[in-house]
Amino acid sequence: MAELSYRDAVARGIAQEMRRDPSLVMLGEDIAAAGGVFKTTVGLLDEFGPLRVRDTPISEQAILGAAMGAAMTGVPVIAEIMFSDFLAVCFDILANQMAKTRYMTAGQVTVPVVVRTANGGGSRFGAQHSQSVENWTMMIPGLKVVAPSNPVDVVGLMAAAVRDPDPVVFFEHKSLMARKAEIPEGELVDRLGTARVVRPGRDCTIVAVALMVERALQAADELAGDGIEAEVIDVRSLVPLDARTILDSVVKTGRLYTVEENPRLCGWGAEIASIAADEVFWDLDGPVVRIATPHIPLPAADALEDETIPSVARIYETIRRTADQ
Amino acid sequence: MAELSYRDAVARGIAQEMRRDPSLVMLGEDIAAAGGVFKTTVGLLDEFGPLRVRDTPISEQAILGAAMGAAMTGVPVIAEIMFSDFLAVCFDILANQMAKTRYMTAGQVTVPVVVRTANGGGSRFGAQHSQSVENWTMMIPGLKVVAPSNPVDVVGLMAAAVRDPDPVVFFEHKSLMARKAEIPEGELVDRLGTARVVRPGRDCTIVAVALMVERALQAADELAGDGIEAEVIDVRSLVPLDARTILDSVVKTGRLYTVEENPRLCGWGAEIASIAADEVFWDLDGPVVRIATPHIPLPAADALEDETIPSVARIYETIRRTADQ
Amino acid sequence: MSIEFDPGLIDYAQRPPRLPQPVDPNNDDLPIALETRLELYESQLTLRQFEKRAYDLFLQNLVKGTSHLSLGMEAIAAGFGKAMRRDDYSFATYRGHAHTLARGVPLGPVLAELLGRANGLLEGKGGSMHLTSVEHGMMGSYAIIGAHLTIANGAAWSAQLRGTEQVSVCFFGDGTTNIGAFHEALNLAAVWDLPVVFVCENNLYMEYTPIDLITAVENPAADRASAYGLEPIIVDGNDADAVYVVATEVIDRARRGLGPALVEATTYREQGHSRADPGKYRPVEEVAAWKARDPIPLYHQRLLRLGVPEQDLTTIQQAVAGRVDEATEFAKSGAAPALELAMKDVWADGSAVWRN
Amino acid sequence: MSIEFDPGLIDYAQRPPRLPQPVDPNNDDLPIALETRLELYESQLTLRQFEKRAYDLFLQNLVKGTSHLSLGMEAIAAGFGKAMRRDDYSFATYRGHAHTLARGVPLGPVLAELLGRANGLLEGKGGSMHLTSVEHGMMGSYAIIGAHLTIANGAAWSAQLRGTEQVSVCFFGDGTTNIGAFHEALNLAAVWDLPVVFVCENNLYMEYTPIDLITAVENPAADRASAYGLEPIIVDGNDADAVYVVATEVIDRARRGLGPALVEATTYREQGHSRADPGKYRPVEEVAAWKARDPIPLYHQRLLRLGVPEQDLTTIQQAVAGRVDEATEFAKSGAAPALELAMKDVWADGSAVWRN
Ligand SMILES: Cc1ncc(C[n+]2csc(CCOP(=O)(O)OP(=O)(O)O)c2C)c(N)n1
Ligand SMILES: Cc1ncc(C[n+]2csc(CCOP(=O)(O)OP(=O)(O)O)c2C)c(N)n1
Ligand SMILES: [Mg+2]
Ligand SMILES: [Mg+2]
After folding, report:
1. Residue C261 forms beta bridges with which residues?
2. Which of A162, A183, A204 is the last residue of a domain?
3. Residues A134, A104: one domain?
4. Residues A170, A236: one domain?
5. Based on the domain organization, do A229 and A121 belong to the same domain?
6. Are residues B255 and B138 in the same domain?
7. Range of the domain at A292
8. For chain C, which ranges sit under pLDDT 70?
């Protein structure tokens, strides 16, 4: 067991897979010599060399296109898009090409690409460098979507993403980079499409991903003080979605809360809420409530950013206020 | 009163506004001399001349960037992105620049741009030219989103969009282009943020936009034969959203169905379903059911495309099957 | 605000025609084996007859969706197709029938795909704009401008990494040179010395708009080559021999690790942009002049000059016609795709399942 | 698959340094009024002292979020700022402090913005990377590479339509020349003869990567000019006079309707890319050589050579220092923005309301 930070876990997960598969390569801006602007790829250039770990120009379309073309022809690729906000500059390649080509070609083409990207707020970077955009990718048929909340999951889900033959978008949360955890020795391989109950409870279900998981857990602790036992689920993988684990929990607790960092409209929580409101409607004991960032671009100032992204206090208060509805 | 097609209504709406505001200009690919590939801008070059109606290179980022920069400096712009699928090639300008700049600059900058684009399936164009992407824009704070279902709304909502000082994405549905309607003479100006009850009913509420409205209406007619009176709401404007009209209807009928052309995950229907499952939960008499295109890229062949986009039969059968739940 | 009105720009058909250069008479003497030339002839005829048939079927309302013909542009696909190695990669656009067939993809499934049939190349799921046959090195037709240049880079990068000496050849139009992805792809290809050949088919129009009105340079590809440290190369895209020679050279260089090339092939599409377009925005003399420069009669005449008996050419024509007829039968006999197909192959496990 | 390993590329700091050209001695004689020169001096000093202060405040943990300094690059912002007309438009990047101040935007609100205070230029909502002051023609700082080139076109287009003879000036880095939007913006500007000047600040690095390793040409902007029918223009970006002369000329041409320009200004950033970066990937001799070419001592020496008494320069320095101190007080005294601000100004009606 070694204690690793979330950022180190990224490199650990990638290294594990690059050792296993000598054909796996990486590309992205400043990922090689500099070890990434979030220092998530430190050491990989040294170990795997400049042909497998490659710095690119600022050409996000060329990056994802190169990844796709290589993957189609037998070379699996991990591509980095530095900030998830920049998925917008290469959204055609991601959403219209990578995601659709297998289907359009009746299965002739396979695209084993992992698109890693730093996601989420909390760094006071303002509206163009702080977005949570899991929903941008979740809404695209043909993309798988993973958003780990802790270092162990980073390693295992990275391995699962790399081994998955389909394009996977892997969201690394900027505000979790410094979180540490003990990582078991040896090969770690997790499974996509599996949510995890990170806190059992009987009174309500809180679903969260990434940074929101720890906040949901803290809120759940506070709620426990008031006699409300919340079950907290770390969704981990938005596509494939472990709807079963979520719905089982809702059936048990009768109440569903989503905690979303994305601005509200069409967030992933809306999808999960709509699934619950259909499939376990009769098991619901009260409204499905979404706790999300308001539908605004993010402000830069610390005071303002802290106010807009769901906080422990907001989660706690919202559930406290609505639990008896 | 003159009978106009949906496609002609686009030009009629634009012409009305260009006559009113001599500073309003347009740009896009093949919109001027050719009158647009969907013939939605025929006659505008003749009337307003090549400086106000301008053909561009295939440079969607440059198109939207030019629109934004002009709009910021006093020249309102209507920009065409030929197919809504291509919003992906200029998504940064749309989602990160146009949508966020007012907020980031604390209101210093105003961006009166209308982005018109041909949306939706039914033309057997396959996965890269047939998408319904209202949710791509609805999920971005700072964008308004309009999707008219008929020629009269096209004119009135176009005027409303042009007069709105914020960026508005205006979805013109490819499969509605040939629909005709009588258009009243004189200036037509509608209001964003207003849904319309297009068929009153007491048993359930069906919300739809664009092409799905007429299908919902036909399904409602069939359901009426079985004694189910569905209320059909044409949402028209997804942002701002007339939640009041929708929720009032759900309170009355107790049941909510969404009919969405977008692939299921994070579609606009999820957002509306989640609002209902929260705010009118106690008025719901049964599950909220979403009728959507399955979460797949669209197939090209007619037989397959017809099977995937919600059909009258599927709407009818789904409601029939679930109405008593 | 007063905006002045310059009526001069309005009707593109009234602009001065852009006429073709005459055929270079020296091209008769290009060092190409006669056997190869007969294959180039047959290939061009195949593309031509196939697309004429596709057009007939469209008039009979049997072709579903849109389609973009390259009648008049066949010399480019044929010339490159012939110059490529069997395991090289092709990347094409929505206007990709010719590029697909030029790699040896059988006619029947391609035509069936246009008709939206289950026996189509893509089981009806792709349609005319997405023709792909991985087993023939035809890595896909991409319908959104620009993307496939970056993807072609990826295939070339993979060949470079794997050390296979495969070359990636990417076809696109003049209008495509103005989109951002073009720039990103060319720069990366040059920086990484990728074995990729970019082929700009300059048919003078981006859909309905003359390319010169929307492009800052005269030769949309060649005049950009230096921005990537590449040589400007312009070739007569209506002469299959000229194309073949240039193609052989640039592909060979790429194969030897000497990096990418950008080729501009001048040509003309004899019909509208897509099935909906009558092409009225073009000066009539221009269309006439280019039709007189059609690559197929040109090639036919050359073969006669080189001593091939007319009868041999007729035999080839008949063989091609027979294959096109067969393909038509094959396509028409196809069933509508089964509805389960729509729910197949979103994911590599064959399914469309996104949840448990 | 075997992938070979070339260790030569790994440590960028071990590469041969890219050294600056010597200052052109003739630049002393450029026809610039002494008064203008003193303004250029003061402007450069202001940018320098401001950013040094910003750096100090960062070390005191008072600057929130990231910030990108342009220490060593001030001559460009100052030279262009001085050459622009009051109603011309500036567009900058996340590295936009200098470009903002060079338009006369007051120091206090800019510094307060970096500190995330309510008295900030953007009420704390934009931060360092989004400085904007419409009343000063500073139309914004854009933090995602490429976009603002297309937006600058739009402002130029609007000026052209309105007939105001305003010019749009757009600043960006060497790394930015490789993104698609650069290409689209340059082409459209050229085709439409827009009154826009694109200024590439070539500081040799795209973040932590040497620009020459990822760019197909030596001069990332100038060697691309011909792809848009433009003249290649390279200027010494560490000499405010050289910049000013070129800026005056290209802005004047644009103003007279003679179309856009692309200027490459060679320079160097003396510190890391952003606050988190110590800049260790650069050869030490390179950093040293460029620091010895710092624009401010260079300019100081020139003014002395031109006969300005040292005392006059000291007076200017003191005045600037005073203003920076004042700005610091102003910024530090600012309150945290009120939370309601977060829910303001999404829409033009001032609200964030998306539903009824
Ligand atoms: C990003 C994008 N923008 C616009 C279109 C619509 N479109 C399809 S073909 C075409 C013209 C392409 O012109 P060119 O590159 O010259 O190729 P050609 O059709 O002449 O072969 C356009 C604008 C598209 N498919 N993708
Ligand atoms: C589309 C996009 N990709 C990547 C980044 C991250 N990034 C910020 S600054 C930068 C380097 C820019 O280099 P250059 O254009 O030379 O400007 P400089 O910082 O040197 O002034 C990068 C890659 C970004 N902001 N936007
Ligand atoms: Mg063309
Ligand atoms: Mg730089």
Report:
1. C197
2. A183
3. yes
4. no
5. no
6. no
7. 196-322
8. 1-9
Same domain, B59 and B149: yes
CA distance B182 to B150: 10
Nearest partner of C219 among C238, C242, C201, C239, judged by Cα: C201
**Residue located via tokens 């609200």:** D351
User: Do A127 and A18 sit in the same domain of this protein?
Assistant: yes
Of the three residues A183, A206, A230, the one that is the final residue of a domain is: A183
Between chain B and chain C, how many beta carbons pairs sit less than 8 Å apart?
162
**B313 in reach of chain C (CB within 8 A):** no
- Distance between CA D291 and CA C238 in Å, rounded? 57
Mind listing the pLDDT tens digit for each residue in D279-324?
Answer: 899 999 999 999 999 999 999 999 999 999 999 999 999 999 999 9
Question: What atom of ligand 1 comes closest to residue C176's alpha carbon?
Answer: 15
Residue B188 lies in a domain: no
- Report all structural domains of chain D as residue ranges with CATH numbers, in order of start: 33-327 (3.40.50.970)
| Active-site residue identified among B102, B116, B129, B144 | B129
Contact yes or no for D162 and B105 at CB 8 A: no
Answer whether B302 touches A (CB < 8 Å).
no
Query: Do A110 and A165 meet the contact criterion of CB atoms below 8 Å apart?
Result: yes
Atom in ligand 2 nearest the alpha carbon of residue A29: 23
Q: Where are the beta strands (DSSP E) in chain B?
A: 2-5, 25-28, 53-55, 77-83, 113-119, 144-146, 168-173, 180-183, 196-199, 204-208, 230-234, 237-239, 256-263, 289-293
pTM, full prediction: 0.98
Q: At what angle do helices C240-255 and C74-83 cross, to 10 degrees?
A: 40
Classify residue A117: in a domain, yes or no.
yes
The answer to whether residues B125 and B99 belong to one domain is: yes
Of B99, B138, B277, the CB nearest to A273: B277
* Ligand 1 near C208 CB (within 6 A): no
Give the 3-state secondary structure of residue C216: coil
Contact B168, B238 (CB under 8 A): no
How many CB atoms neighbour CB D262 within 10 A?
A: 27
C-alpha–C-alpha distance, residues B25 and B79, integer Å: 8
Query: Residue A6: what residue type?
Result: Y
Please judge whether A270 and B274 are an interchain contact, meaning their C-beta atoms are less than 8 angstroms apart: yes
Contacts (Cβ under 8 Å, ≥6 apart) of C224:
C177, C186, C217, C262, D227
**Interface predicted TM-score (ipTM):** 0.98
* Dihedral sign computed on CA atoms, order C327, C330, C332, C337: negative
Query: How many domains are there within chain A?
Result: 2
The whole-angstrom separation of Cα B205 and Cα A268 is: 24
Averages of pLDDT over runs of 10 residues in chain B (325 residues) are 95 98 98 96 96 97 99 98 98 98 98 98 97 98 98 98 98 98 97 98 98 98 98 98 98 98 98 98 98 98 96 98 90
- Per the annotation, the verdict on B295 as an active-site residue is no
Q: What is the pLDDT of residues A267-310, one digit of tens each?
A: 999 999 999 999 999 999 999 999 999 999 999 999 999 999 99
Report the run of H or E that residue A4 belongs to, with start and end: strand A2-5
How close B12 gets to chain A, by Cα (Å)? Answer: 32
Strand partners, A28: A55
Mean pLDDT computed over A182-187: 96
CA distance, residue D179 to nearest chain C CA (Å): 6
Q: Does D353 touch chain A (CB under 8 A)?
A: no
Does residue A189 fall inside a structural domain? Answer: no
Write the CATH number for A13: 3.40.50.970
* B42 and B88 part of one domain: yes
Task: For chain D, positions 114-143, list CB contacts with chain B under 8 A.
Answer: 121-123, 125-126, 130, 132-134, 139-140, 142
Residue A213's CATH number:
3.40.50.920
Residues of chain D found within 8 Å of residue C215, distances taken between Cβ atoms = 187, 191
Q: Does A319 touch chain B (CB under 8 A)?
A: no
- Note whether residue A190 is domain-resident: no
Cβ-based neighbour number of residue B274 at 10 Å: 29
